[in-house]
Design a protein that fits this description.
Strand content: 5-15%
Number of domains: 2
Distance between the termini: 69 Å
Shape: elongated
Radius of gyration: 19 Å
Number of strands: 2
Largest sheet: 2 strands, antiparallel
Helix content: 40-55%
Amino acid sequence: MRVHRTAPMRAFSALSHTLLSDRSISWCAVGVLAYLLSLPGATRVTVRALAEQRREGLGRIARALRELEESRYLRTVLRGDRETGQLVAVYEVFDTPYEDESRAGEPEKVRNLTSGESASSGHQRTVLAARLLGSLGITHPCLMLGASQVWRLAPLVVEWWDAGLSSAQVRAALTEGLPRRVHSPAALIENRLRHKHPAHPAVAA
């Protein structure tokens, strides 16, 4: 193979060898991440907007984003929009896998979401549950929720944590085996949170 490179003059991006040689993610995921890394920090990005720019389609782009989340190149946080007052899911992207640390703005004590003792207050646990629910729509656009729906359903997520389940287990229960068409994301999520709710672990005598 002969490689021909153009000397960069302006508007170029550099990618790490760690990313380019990482076999845990697909070429599609590498391409999506490369594009995200090339954007200014304040750029607003949605799954639909990414899909409209290329021919891979919504499904492949969503799968690529899930790969990046699983391999720790991407994570999502919920932040309040000062103009609308609503919660907005925001991507955080990294050119190398990030370390397991608290997200920006989150207290150190809330890393373990499954334990009531790890959060400094019940309100913080509700906030974290709202963040989890709000992030579902990023990788699964059919599960996009409004701010009022997120806050209404957040206590149900806390109940799952109280039953000893992790955030990953909650997310899997809400996103696996989705129907082809979701007419009401809030209704589907509420139904799963209520009817798939695990029983509290039995206490040994």
